[in-house]
Amino acid sequence: MKQLVILSGKGGTGKTSLAAAFAHLFSQSPFANRVVLADADVDAANLELVLQPRLREQEDFRGGQVAVIDESTCTSCGDCEAVCRFDAIHHTDSLYAVDPIACDGCAACVYQCPSESITMFEQVAGRFYVSDSRYGPLYHASLYPGRENSGKLVTLVKQRARLRALDEHRELVIVDGPPGIGCPVIAAASGADLALIVAEPTAAGVHDMKRILQTTEHFHIPALVCINKADIYPLGTKKIEAYCWDNEFQVAGKIPFDEAVTEAMVHGEPVTAYKPNAPVSRAIIDLWCSVMESLSIQNTCMGL
Ligand code: SF4
Ligand code: SF4
Prior knowledge:
Blueprint: E1 2-8, H1 15-27, E2 35-39, H2 47-51, E3 54-69, H3 79-83, E4 89-92, E5 95-98, H4 108-112, E6 118-133, E7 136-143, H5 150-167, E8 172-179, H6 183-189, E9 194-199, H7 203-218, E10 223-228, H8 234-246, E11 250-255, H9 260-266, H10 271-274, H11 279-294
Helix pairs in contact: 1-11, 5-6, 7-8
This protein binds iron/sulfur cluster (SF4) (2 copies).
One iron/sulfur cluster (SF4) binds next to α3.
């Protein structure tokens, strides 16, 4: 079983469209329904929008703790408000209360309270889902606004997807990673056999690509680069290619801008299924074949 993670330095670069197209292309090979999908962008999961899966299971995700003040024993001394470094405790008319969004769960107030009026409670930070898509099971989640522990939720999504693939002897896990270079990205990328970095040919896009490549390099994860919307700013594309050449990263594909990608999303289909002969689909197929070659998964490109 191999793990492919699709990453980019920022959101909106086309990671999800690629993940959906790859799931579709894998289903066209002898490995039909042999993929497991994981949407690790728990702050803005949207692979389900393209794949329109059927929900099978869901459960609460408990992440972190929140302080709660017992008004019946609180003496309104204000010590907790003074010790809270997150400005999460406020009072009105001498009643002290914790803002659960601002509370970091550090428990400093619990130790400070002279009347033992503060208790830490586990909080529900999000929701975890297992769905069936037409190409294979999809593991996804949503972190509630203002909640912490996105890295922990990403790890949960990935671990469950990986276990499913191992249990059912599936060949591939495709992880649609979160944007950026923070903790959720590291959680999404850990253990991956290959990272596909989606770069855009803009000034910021080049900078974002360098940062994410430094991250994958730091964790010794082999990486390929693809340039999305490569034709909208040829100079930017050349800069990405030059950087990759100088630093020995392979540019595995250049995908042209095509409104068919948005149309396909609106229709709830991967672009390779919606318009298989569009230039963008042909470019994604070429990229897919390079990715499969890098992962040493054979016989996945015949007939595409
Ligand atoms: S647990 Fe920490 S962050 Fe939360 S209210 Fe208490 S002191 Fe503030
Ligand atoms: S430290 Fe305890 S007693 Fe004092 S205001 Fe806070 S909750 Fe109330």
